Prior knowledge:
- The structure is a homodimer of 405-residue chains.
- Chain A is built from twelve helices and 15 strands.
- Chain A has helices at 16-29, 43-47, 61-68, 90-101, 113-128, 155-173, 193-197, 221-232, 268-279, 292-295, 302-320, 374-377, and strands at residues 2-8, 33-39, 51-53, 104-111, 134-139, 180-186, 211-213, 237-243, 256-257, 263-264, 283-288, 326-334, 339-346, 389-390, 393-394.
- Chain A has a seven-stranded mixed sheet with strand order 3-2-1-4-5-12-13, with helices on both faces. In chain A, strands 7-8-6-11 form a four-stranded parallel sheet, sandwiched between helices. Chain A has a two-stranded antiparallel sheet with strand order 9-10.
- In chain A, strand 4, helix 5 (113-128) and strand 5 (134-139) form a beta-alpha-beta unit.
- In chain A, helix 1 (16-29) packs across helix 11.
- Chain A starts with a strand and ends in an 11-residue tail after the last strand.
- Chains A and B meet through helix 6, strand 9, helix 9, strand 11 and helix 10 of A and helix 6, strand 9, helix 9, strand 11 and helix 10 of B.
Amino acid sequence: MFNIAVAQSGGPTCAINASLVGVYKEALKEPSIDAVFGSVNGLEGIIQNHMINLKSMILTNDDMELLKQTPSTVLGSCRYKLPDWEEDEEVYKQIVSTLKQRNIGAFLYIGGNDSMDTVNKLSEYFKSISLDIKVIGIPKTIDNDLCITDHTPGFGSAAKYVATTLKEITRDSIVYSIPSVTIVEIMGRHAGWLTASSAVLHAMGETAPHLVYVPEAKFSLEGFLKDVRQELSKHKAVIVAVSEGIEVPDGVQSGVVDNFGHKYLSGIGKYLEETVRNEIGCKVRSIELNVMQRCSSHLGSKTDIDESECIGAAGVRAALNGSTGKVMVFKRVSDMPYTVTIDSADASKIANQEKFLPKKYINSAGNNIDDRALEYFMPLIQGELNLVMEHGVPKHFAIHESVLK
Amino acid sequence: MFNIAVAQSGGPTCAINASLVGVYKEALKEPSIDAVFGSVNGLEGIIQNHMINLKSMILTNDDMELLKQTPSTVLGSCRYKLPDWEEDEEVYKQIVSTLKQRNIGAFLYIGGNDSMDTVNKLSEYFKSISLDIKVIGIPKTIDNDLCITDHTPGFGSAAKYVATTLKEITRDSIVYSIPSVTIVEIMGRHAGWLTASSAVLHAMGETAPHLVYVPEAKFSLEGFLKDVRQELSKHKAVIVAVSEGIEVPDGVQSGVVDNFGHKYLSGIGKYLEETVRNEIGCKVRSIELNVMQRCSSHLGSKTDIDESECIGAAGVRAALNGSTGKVMVFKRVSDMPYTVTIDSADASKIANQEKFLPKKYINSAGNNIDDRALEYFMPLIQGELNLVMEHGVPKHFAIHESVLK
Lengths: 405, 405
């Protein structure tokens, strides 16, 4: 008999708690597993031995269903970067101390590519000291930029939010008789997956988004203004989707000065808005989808949430089968009917790597998404959650904030 | 036999198309009404005789159901302010020409308090020239700031969006172990109804929003910083809801200078974010709910959408009963069970007036909402639409943009 540990890390998504449910449910089925300990605030909870027996927190099947519709990380998160153990072994010793004290046989880490670095380092360290604790990574990120896996848990729900919201913004933008430009800024510092996913609207008869700019395509202000003028000649209300991470010349994004004389980071959307206002002079506005694109569980993709639960469960089975230093990944078998299997890959091949939008998904002008990308994106946003509501708003799994303190 | 005209005006909401459906359905039932003409872009369509026979646009019952889940104004909108007819009669003559040519017996105008000014002026003018065309206003605004009516169509859906999103942002904000402040900027230039409605979360066991600032309460930066410091001593993640229209000293909202050296209007949220960063120094971010709070039909309140349809229908009946220069209003009979009736009021008493949040709904410190307000807000956000989805996103009523050109 042994226990397992699970932690959540990195930026929130709608699907991280579903993966936690997957881990917990699968562990409950396994006679050789005694308890599941949730680490508070990612790896920090293990370092500080701040862990919660999930049996005392997740009491019923209804709790598990609520968790699957609750955004963000119920166990808290961290942005902790583990040092190399050759340089600083102290923190590794603390981790080993906690894990041994709690009789942990496997540690499941749900997170992005930083967390997969942790999975890699910890598994290597444990091997080096001949400690038999399996370490398995469960991917998550709305950025969809992890290598090897077909897509990441959390991405589908974010894409469903982006597509739905862009469609509603399009309805909102078209109402007046004067021409207008609406610029929607979407998350993605280096990879344009989420911004590109907005093009699924093209498969539904929408002409919007009329322009899509991703970091993988070269961007110029001159080209942008030419594109906008051209679209304005065809459409009354031009909708532009832009990744927060596109590169504009001379670091404009930090050029705005506030009342106190301090510079602050203004988003690319606001910058392009100002450019259109000054250079074209038409009605223009910018909209930042902000954290809503990662936490709007009320618009969760059922495909995403179900898969996120499955990949959490698969992580437990992989550990039981003796795997360590591995990250669970999706392999797409077919687009239609959409079928995926779950496999695993070496954490070292995923850690600290980024996967970019393939060139073939971007049109030749570099200002929109090719229709070939749609069969990739479409299956990921399908299906809706059967939300439990309370007093007119979605019910969330409730954990008192003092538990996480 | 006569025809009726209907138009939509002002800023979009999730409920304006439901009121259009209410008008259209009720007119179809009435043997004395021949056709219903929809005016394109509000009053502008009547002035320019740009009108659509709704029978050629809304073909099936499914179309009507889709319209009820489609945000914004399917007939377009305008911000046109009708001059006094004593000063400029020309435009009135154009309106009369269109209405006579199309044999209009009643004109229903769905809009905010500017539109109710139009209802008032047109009905007075028609009386003065002894023209028997009834003019009836159907209210709409997410701001909920119209007089006499208990609440406005469109407000409930916006409030449901704000409450749901604030709850999800709260989950997103609590994940890290460090203290943080999240400032959510909500629409409402003069009245704080929508911002105040976020306090419904208190009825669901949430401590957030911890601070709520509305234009009806005096605001000072010193008081704000003191409030934030106090809440940070009690909660790790402090959530602040703030109306875009709160008054801050010396016009700070226009103090930000961009790259081109031009000033632009930065929102109050961004300004307060900077203030917290500079004066308190903790992790802080601001989020603007932007147009999503008025166009997120996927989160429509069933109560709101159903009522919006009913009040449109009631407008047609009022016109048939000989009313003119009236605005349809809700009268609340009881909070629990929630019951409203529909009545009418003189447009002159609603036009150009604003209704503010009552003092008793604001706490004594002026930095949050009193629980007494919750029984007012709660019924308005109840119920969900049974959304028709298509390819993973809500389906909208489709009208080709060329029709509205």
